[in-house]
């Protein structure tokens, strides 16, 4: 059966050529797998059969952030114009990435209406937007006795605000309050809206999203708190709009006990153990360096700043939100860039969303998963010591055992021992089991991470080859220098010896001649005297 999207494109060929200012040519089609369904890739060729541009056609569906990232990567790799055609557009994060990559997005319903009979999602018109205003809403002076509002206050207090304001939202039959945290400069830190109804639908999500439009553009964390549950469509909509959904019942069941509170406390204490185990020194919150680094930054939770060797700084964040979302990771990355810090770590209270975990990995931020032990694992007697080897140590080890990098046993990058010593793909870890027993492991990616084992091996082989070339060059230079030095020394020694020999010979000859002369004179004088005396006596 022919793909209905191809039929739509064939019926509207002129419009597709017009997207890239072409009057004619040829179209080629390729069905591709997207994040949540298939889409059609349309290649537009000009009359000379050269590629003029590419259209990713999603029909009446929405393009998700993962699809957008693939599209941006494709454009950067091929250096070709691209257009996104999706009836329901994309997420706010997707729009931002499209704008940065200069990719045009279109929602041409004339092209899409034949594809599917289902209706496009309706959006609230601007007239129906519920814009929250301090003047229109009633500011609460006394906190209402409500578990929803108490939970909202607790959530905001984790971000360490200077001011907390609670307002009652009018214009609805449902009892609705909104809690906001502010800094001393009156900047919004977080917004939590409580809706006292048993089931939250899409309408409430969109209404809230429209009312906090300005804050969303500033990456302020927002959330809706309900007594019990949210519909599946509401969850999907909230996920796309980066709105946290919090169930008071679930929070009470999972977090309300003393055991859970103790766990949260232990999590923060354990973070310090992990940092110190990596060789960092914790900087006190009262120190001038800590205050200077975090001055003017939006609080996302509890921060720990540590200093390592060669003035390397590590920034650790324990986010205030239970489930860490992609907006928090991006904001944390911006804070690191502002502070000029390269290494960062995120330790969640519960877990990361899939997109948040992926964003952290792309941003080279260490994201400790829920199953990772949050304490110094090497303090346990069953866990051997792990050490990340330097390039020089790797070369010595391979030369000693006459081995190659590809022959080393492997260990995954998310192994607790590797994470504890901050090991990356391509590093070699030395595992010391006893005084006489050492094992070596090459760090490789998980098969489902999108990277292959050969990636780590090829990079390591290339690095080792470069080091060996450099080492050989140094050895040759040293050999040449030594040879030249030996030659120069020999020349100087020969010259000095010749000069000294000549001087000694001259001196010896002179002395010997003088001695002979003296001896001869004395002998001649004696002979003459004897002869004279004999002659006189006669």
CATH topology of the largest domain: Trna Endonuclease, Chain: A, domain 1
The description of the largest β-sheet is:
6 strands, mixed
Mean pLDDT: 78
Helix and strand composition category: alpha/beta
Percent of residues in helices comes to 40-55%
Binned strand content = 15-25%
Radius of gyration: 40 Å
The total of beta strands comes to: 24
Q: How many structural units, i.e. domains?
A: 4
Q: What is the distance, rounded to the nearest whole angstrom, between the alpha carbons of the first and last residues?
A: 161 Å
CATH class wording of the largest domain: Alpha Beta
Which strand order does the major sheet show?
Answer: 6-7-8-9-11-13
CATH architecture annotation of the largest domain: 3-Layer(aba) Sandwich
Textual characterization of the structure:
This protein is of the alpha/beta class and 538 residues long. The protein is built from 17 helices and 24 strands. The strands form six sheets. It has a six-stranded mixed beta sheet with strand order 6-7-8-9-11-13, with helices on both faces. Strands 1-2-3-4-5 form a five-stranded mixed beta sheet, with helices on both faces. Strand 1 (26-34) and strand 2 (37-45) form a beta hairpin. The chain is elongated, with a radius of gyration of 40 Å.
Main features:
44% helix, five-stranded mixed β-sheet, Trna Endonuclease, Chain: A, domain 1, 538 residues, elongated, Dna-directed Rna Polymerases I, Ii, And Iii 27 Kd Polypeptide, Chain: A, domain 1, alpha/beta
């Amino acid at each position: 059966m022919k793909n209905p999207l191809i039929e739509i494109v064939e019926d509207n060929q002129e419009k597709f050529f017009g997207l890239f200012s072409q009057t004619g040519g040829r179209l080629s089609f390729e069905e591709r797998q997207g994040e949540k369904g298939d889409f059609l890739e349309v290649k537009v060729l000009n009359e000379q059969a050269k590629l003029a541009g590419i259209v990713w056609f999603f029909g009446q569906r929405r393009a998700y952030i993962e699809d957008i990232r693939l599209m941006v990567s494709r454009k950067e790799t091929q250096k070709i114009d691209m257009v996104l055609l999706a009836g329901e557009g994309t997420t706010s994060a997707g729009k931002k990435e499209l704008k940065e990559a200069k990719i045009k997005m279109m929602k041409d319903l004339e092209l899409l209406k034949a594809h599917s009979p289902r209706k496009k999602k309706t959006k609230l018109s601007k007239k129906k937007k519920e814009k929250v205003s301090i003047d229109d809403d009633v500011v609460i002076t006394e906190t209402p006795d409500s578990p929803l509002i108490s939970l909202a206050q607790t959530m905001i207090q984790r971000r360490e605000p200077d001011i907390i304001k609670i307002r009652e939202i009018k214009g609805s039959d449902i009892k609705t309050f909104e809690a906001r945290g502010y800094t001393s400069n009156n900047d919004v830190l977080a917004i939590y809206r409580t809706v006292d109804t048993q089931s939250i639908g899409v309408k409430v999500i969109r209404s809230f999203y429209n009312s906090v439009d300005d804050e969303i553009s500033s990456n302020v964390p927002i959330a809706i708190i309900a007594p019990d549950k949210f519909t599946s469509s509401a969850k999907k909509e909230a996920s796309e709009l980066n709105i946290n959904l919090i169930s008071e019942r679930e929070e009470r069941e999972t977090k309300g006990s003393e055991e859970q509170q103790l766990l949260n406390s232990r999590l923060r204490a354990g973070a310090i153990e992990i940092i110190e185990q990596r060789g960092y020194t914790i900087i006190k919150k009262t120190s001038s360096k800590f205050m200077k680094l975090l001055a003017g930054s939006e609080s996302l939770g509890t921060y720990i700043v540590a200093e390592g060797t060669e003035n390397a700084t590590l920034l650790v964040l324990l986010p205030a939100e239970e489930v860490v979302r992609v907006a928090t990771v991006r904001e944390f990355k911006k804070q690191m860039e502002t502070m000029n810090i390269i290494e960062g770590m995120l330790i969640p209270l519960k877990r990361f969303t899939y997109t948040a975990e992926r964003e952290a990995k792309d941003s080279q931020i260490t994201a400790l998963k829920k199953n990772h032990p949050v304490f110094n694992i090497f303090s346990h007697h069953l866990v051997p010591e792990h050490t990340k080897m330097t390039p020089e140590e790797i070369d010595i080890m391979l030369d000693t055992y006459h081995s190659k990098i590809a022959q080393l046993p492997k260990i995954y990058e998310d192994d607790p021992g590797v994470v504890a010593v901050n090991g990356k793909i391509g590093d070699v870890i030395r595992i010391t089991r006893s005084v006489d027993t050492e094992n070596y492991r090459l760090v490789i990616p998980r098969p489902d991470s999108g990277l292959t084992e050969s990636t780590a091996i090829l990079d390591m082989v290339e690095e080792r080859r470069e080091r060996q070339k450099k080492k050989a060059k140094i050895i040759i230079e040293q050999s040449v220098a030594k040879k030249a030095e030996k030659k120069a020394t020999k020349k100087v020694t020969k010259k000095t010896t010749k000069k000294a020999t000549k001087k000694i010979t001259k001196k010896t000859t002179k002395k010997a001649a003088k001695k002979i002369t003296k001896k001869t004179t004395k002998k001649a004088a004696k002979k003459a005297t004897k002869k004279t005396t004999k002659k006189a006596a006669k």
